[in-house]
Amino acid sequence: MPANVRDIVADVTHFYGWGPRDAGGLTWTELAQWLAQARRIQHAAQQAAEKSRVR
Questions:
Q1: What is the pTM (predicted TM-score) of this model?
Q2: What is the pLDDT of residues 1-55, one digit of tens each?
Q3: What burial class does residue 35 get, using C-beta atoms within 10 Å of its C-beta: 0-12 exposed, 13-18 middle, 19+ buried?
Q4: How far apart are CA 23 and CA 14, in angstroms?
Q5: Residue 14 and which of 39, 43, 45, 48 are 20 to 30 A apart at CA?
Q6: Domains of the chain: which residue ranges?
Q7: What totals of helices (H) and strands (E) does the chain contain, helices first?
Q8: Are 9 and 35 in contact (CB under 8 A)?
Q9: In b/e form, how buried is each residue of 13-32, taking b as 16+ CB within 10 angstroms?
């Protein structure tokens, strides 16, 4: 488990709009999966925004 697990929990709960205790029951594997999906979604949104600016 990484040292910054609290930061990761805070980032994931903020991204998904969860309450402060909603991620408490997740395993590290589940938390890592949610984090990966959040990063994927954010990356796709950034690419779409950049594409729309180019037009």
A1: 0.75
A2: 566 888 888 889 999 999 978 988 899 899 989 999 999 999 999 999 998 987 6
A3: middle
A4: 11
A5: 48
A6: 4-54
A7: 2, 0
A8: no
A9: beeeeeeeeebeeeeeeebe
